[in-house]
Amino acid sequence: MTSEPIRFTDGAGYDRFMGVWSRLAGQDFLDWIAPHHGQRWLDVGCGNGAFTQLIAERSAPLSLVGIDPSDSQLAFARQHPLLQSVEFINADAMALPFADASFDLAVMPLVIFFVPEPAQGVAEMARVVAPGGTVAAYAWDLEGGGYPYQGVNETLSAIGRPRPMPPSPETSRLEVLLDIWATAGLSDIQTREIAVERSFLGFDDVWNTLRGGPSIGQALAAMNEEERSRFHALLRASLQPAGSGPITLAGRAHAIRGTVPGP
Ligand SMILES: C[S@@+](CC[C@H](N)C(=O)[O-])C[C@H]1O[C@@H](n2cnc3c(N)ncnc32)[C@H](O)[C@@H]1O
């Protein structure tokens, strides 16, 4: 059984499911790319604006543009009080609707494995960033156990359900990222890991977070009541063997940055 494509249709559900994680990893990522204030930013695959908020809060951008192909995620982002001066555009990473050298930084937070041709997306970021500017991304280490809901996916497998996967999971490997950044002609390429933890109040908090989100939420919606009960019991036993109390999950992302060479 193959997993159905992951759909991003609910900004609030996404925020609880993944936006919180994106901001946790995004803080370290932003500190690492250490931008100056007053720069022109492009957030590629901005979704519901989860990471865009961090740029707005911490980096005092001169300008900030977010692009994403999901209208419902963009609608959620546009309503955020902190993001009223951000320009949100429905667009594809593989064909960015901007002139060459229009930005100082372009970032892809938790997006690269969703782009059907990741190398094309990174080449586009390198094209629209000015010489000396930064092209950077972070992505869960999907194949190395870094996805925060890895244990949930294993429980899906245990009941014979496919694990929801983005179209290019292999792109989260460090060697694949390094190859894509080098092929895009970027220089001074650096990588790092970002490890984060998130605490949930208890199993119900995890369960409701999963149900409202994309991917695993879609898998839960596709189950009948009996299958969902079996999955609920198995997941509870694996995440909360003591039967009650808070639950902490961990995630680990690969981050990469490179510089657009001068003329
Ligand atoms: C896991 S979400 C990340 C959203 C946001 N960057 C964050 O940090 O929370 C992945 C996003 O990639 C977007 N996406 C999928 N295919 C894309 C493409 N070809 N170009 C740009 N964005 C894409 C989805 O619509 C979704 O909003």
CATH class: Alpha Beta
Low-pLDDT stretches = none
- The fourth-level CATH homologous superfamily is Vaccinia Virus protein VP39
Q: Give the count of structural domains.
A: 1
What does this entry show, briefly?
With 263 residues, the chain is of the alpha/beta class. The protein has one domain (11-259): Rossmann fold, CATH 3.40.50.
Tell me about this structure.
This protein is α/β, with parallel strands linked by helices and 263 residues long. It has a single domain (11-259), classed as Vaccinia Virus protein VP39 (Rossmann fold, 3-Layer(aba) Sandwich). Helices cover 38% and strands 23% of the residues. It is built from 9 helices and 7 strands, in the order αβαβαββαβααβαααβ. The protein has helices spanning 11-33, 50-58, 71-78, 118-128, 150-158, 174-183, 203-212, 216-221, 225-239, and strands at 40-44, 63-68, 87-90, 103-109, 129-140, 187-200, 247-259. Strands 3-2-1-4-5-7-6 form a 7-stranded mixed β-sheet, with helices on both faces. The longest helix has 23 residues, at 11-33. The N and C termini lie far apart (50 Å). The mean pLDDT is 96. Bound molecules: S-adenosylmethionine (SAM).
